[in-house]
Design a protein that fits this description.
Elements (H helix, E strand, L loop, with lengths): L1 H13 L6 H13 L3 H13 L6 H13 L3 H13 L5 H13 L6
Helix pairs in contact: 1-2, 2-3, 2-4, 3-4, 4-5, 4-6, 5-6
Length: 108
């Protein structure tokens, strides 16, 4: 699936089809499945530079992938960036609380 996603994305670019946030979400999902977080973050940074605003789905994809690698402080930083953009989500909070609970950083 990963190589197919990359092929489709590359074809879009070659045909001057502008990827939208949904296209980037699909690409980032596949990249995160391969645990290529550096590449996923690079794409995230690139779309911001291109003026495309990430949506809650994209933030949640990244936050989930980053916390699964144990990078809690980085996941929290992304949540801060998301809220600065004015995006709020109960799902994001659930992802973050789950991460903190699993790491023993909060207790119920």
């Amino acid at each position: 699936m990963f190589s197919k996603a990359i092929d489709i994305f590359d074809t879009m670019i070659r045909q001057d089809i502008e990827p939208d946030v949904v296209t980037y979400n699909m690409l980032i999902v596949e990249i995160c499945k391969k645990e290529m977080l550096s590449e996923a973050k690079d794409i995230f940074d690139t779309i911001i530079r291109q003026g495309i605003e990430p949506d809650v789905v994209m933030y949640n994809i990244l936050i989930g992938a980053i916390y699964k690698k144990g990078m809690i402080s980085e996941a929290i930083s992304i949540v801060y960036a998301m809220t600065k953009q004015g995006i709020e989500s109960d799902v994001t909070c659930e992802i973050l609380v789950d991460a903190l609970l699993k790491k023993g950083m909060v207790y119920c």
